[in-house]
């Protein structure tokens, strides 16, 4: 049998995707040429194509026994071990292939994928840095190192890696996109726009880049321009959930509720959205007289507090209204106007007729900007709530008593923008005639210890749920909070609340206004530039100084 003609025949079978015939021919060839590693590698490849993974390993072991330095055989055995879910053996095989040939990109890519699945990002970093010693001009390696550095939180070095990739290959669209994302994180929006636009110029169908450009323009306070970007993204992918959801948010931010509410329903198709528990009929405005409907809390605690106001509108249609909400809200919402019974998420719910997510109610009920149901309060507080906190607040007389929250929950995707550090509010904390009470929960409350002699009374340990927080809010003269659930609670109770907003606010706070159509007792203090909390603190301090002086003068007049 002629070797060269046999290998040519084998390659023809492979080219025609005749893998069974190719594998059988390989079996014959390895009997004729038992020491030919090239033929054994071709045979292992045919076994792999036919998912005969154990046979792949056996072929590779045969090659390695003959030639221990055969990097390709080690890599191929790694592929088979990985397919057999033998990850330790797969990793060892890939590492040996790379030891033998540090430039072996297939082994590098496979090992990187294996480590990524296990979230072993520090090891991935070491691996890519080692590879770059041998391949410093490889743009793809720099790019992948950048992705790993993002996972490790080393954003400056990630920026450097993406820039290096682009310097080596200016037409690397994915590197432009990833660099733009990192510029977004540090609020360098103008640079982000440049790189998203370059990515789109290189690949007009680059959906992620088109969406990211829209997101950036939205953060720059340009929702109309952002809508145009989402329009173009949807021309590429008409059913893209994120583009529809983002365009809806832009319209809601602009007060275009007729366009916004219907498209906002696309949020329910997002994989992170919790679906209804039973699959009962979705309420779309049908008559409710004598029916039972379940309102499903969704997204954050603040969202549930804000939109539970619609329960009484549903109740007026003759329905029995059941509410499903997270456990920390149950005590607060148990006596909410319009709610007949309340359940924790995951509880068994008795038979009912309809269900609807809370944030779908404004659309079904036809809410316009001038018809927002802003009658407050719509929450009630039980007498036993917050006794410890209320007693502590009552001890402090002769001063303006102000509750303070400077950070939201860490799981919120925009938390680092909506939250600030307590130290950033130093000008506010220095206002005379004011006693501050911390309503802060979570790890951000630890910042109190970093400001010794701050005079802030920490109520956090006595606040076990939102009912306690609500009771404390009622006992305070004012609540000052970033965009988090506590601000919603105070607003729903008709308590004076001043909200500190980032430059790019959530859609519900709209643009260029100091009041909120959702909460009549709320005043909004916005960043004038991204990340600038000091100027916000200064403006709030000026307003708070005037309020403290006014209250002091009122007390003197009474005396």
Strand content: 5-15%
> Using DSSP, what is the number of strands?
10
- Give the neighbour order of strands across the main sheet: 7-6-5-8-9-10
Question: How many independent structural domains?
Answer: 4
Low-confidence stretches: none
CATH domain topology of the largest domain: Rossmann fold
The SS-based structural class is alpha/beta
Helix count from the secondary structure assignment: 26
Report the helical percentage: 40-55%
Instruction: Quote the distance from N terminus to C terminus.
Output: 116 Å
* CA-atom Rg in angstroms: 31 Å
- The mean pLDDT is 92
CATH superfamily of the largest domain: Glycogen Phosphorylase B
Kindly describe this structure.
- The protein is an alpha/beta fold and 559 residues long.
- It has 4 domains: 118 residues, Alpha Horseshoe (Serine Threonine Protein Phosphatase 5, Tetratricopeptide repeat), CATH 1.25.40; 101 residues, Serine Threonine Protein Phosphatase 5, Tetratricopeptide repeat, CATH 1.25.40.10; 80 residues, Rossmann fold (3-Layer(aba) Sandwich), CATH 3.40.50; 172 residues, 3-Layer(aba) Sandwich (Rossmann fold), CATH 3.40.50.2000.
- The chain has a 6-stranded parallel beta sheet, sandwiched between helices. Strands 3-2-1-4 form a 4-stranded parallel beta sheet.
- Helix 14 runs antiparallel to helix 15 and helix 17 runs parallel beside helix 25.
- It is elongated and about 105 Å long.
- The model has no long low-confidence stretch (mean pLDDT 92).
């Amino acid at each position: 049998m002629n070797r060269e003609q046999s290998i040519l025949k084998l390659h023809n079978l492979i080219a025609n995707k005749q893998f069974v015939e190719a594998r059988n021919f390989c079996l014959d060839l390895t009997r004729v040429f038992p020491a030919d590693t090239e033929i054994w590698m071709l045979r292992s490849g045919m076994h792999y194509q036919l998912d005969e993974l154990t046979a792949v390993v056996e072929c590779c072991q045969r090659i390695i026994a003959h030639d221990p330095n055969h990097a390709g055989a080690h890599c191929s055995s790694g592929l088979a071990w990985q397919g057999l879910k033998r990850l330790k053996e797969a990793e060892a095989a890939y590492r040996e292939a790379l030891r033998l040939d540090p430039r072996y990109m297939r082994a590098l890519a496979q090992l990187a994928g294996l480590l990524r699945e296990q979230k072993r990002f520090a090891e991935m970093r070491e691996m890519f840095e080692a590879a770059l010693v041998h391949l410093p001009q490889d743009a793809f390696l720099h790019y992948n190192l950048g992705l790993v550095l993002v996972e490790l939180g080393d954003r400056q070095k990630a920026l450097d890696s993406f820039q290096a990739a682009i310097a080596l290959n200016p037409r690397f669209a994915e590197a432009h996109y990833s660099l733009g994302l990192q510029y977004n994180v540090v609020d360098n929006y103008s640079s982000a726009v440049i790189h998203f636009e370059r990515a789109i110029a290189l690949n007009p169908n680059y959906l992620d880049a088109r969406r990211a450009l829209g997101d950036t323009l939205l953060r720059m306070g340009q929702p109309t321009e952002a809508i145009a970007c989402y329009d173009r993204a949807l021309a590429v992918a008409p059913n893209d959930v994120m583009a529809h959801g983002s365009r809806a948010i832009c319209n809601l931010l602009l007060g275009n509720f007729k366009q916004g509410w219907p498209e906002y329903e696309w949020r329910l198709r997002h994989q992170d959205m919790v679906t209804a528990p039973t699959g009962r009929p979705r309420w779309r405005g049908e008559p409710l007289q004598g029916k039972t409907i379940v309102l499903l809390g969704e997204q954050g605690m603040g969202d549930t507090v804000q939109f539970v106001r619609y329960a009484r509108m549903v109740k007026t249609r003759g329905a029995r209204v059941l509410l499903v909400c997270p456990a920390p809200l149950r005590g607060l919402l148990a006596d909410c106007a319009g709610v007949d019974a309340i359940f924790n998420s995951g509880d068994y719910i008795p038979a009912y007729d309809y269900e609807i997510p809370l944030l779908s109610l404004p659309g079904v009920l036809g809410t316009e900007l001038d018809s927002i149901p802003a009658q407050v309060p719509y929450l009630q507080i039980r007498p036993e709530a917050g006794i410890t906190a209320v007693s502590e607040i009552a001890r402090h007389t002769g001063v303006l008593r102000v509750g303070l929250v400077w950070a939201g929950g860490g799981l919120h995707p925009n938390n680092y923008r909506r939250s600030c550090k307590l130290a950033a509010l130093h000008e506010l904390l220095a206002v005379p005639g004011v006693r501050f009470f911390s309503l802060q929960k979570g790890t951000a409350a630890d910042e109190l210890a970093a400001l010794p002699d701050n005079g802030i009374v920490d109520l956090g340990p006595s606040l076990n749920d939102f009912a306690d927080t609500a009771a404390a809010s009622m006992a305070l003269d004012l609540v000052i909070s970033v965009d988090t659930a506590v601000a919603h609670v105070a607003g729903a109770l008709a308590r004076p609340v001043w909200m500190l907003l980032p430059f790019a606010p959530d859609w519900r706070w709209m643009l260029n206004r100091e009041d909120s159509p959702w909460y009549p007792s709320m005043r909004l203090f916005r960043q004038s530039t991204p990340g600038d909390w000091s100027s916000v603190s200064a403006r709030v301090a000026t307003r708070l100084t005037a309020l403290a002086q006014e209250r002091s003068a009122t007390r003197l007049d009474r005396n």
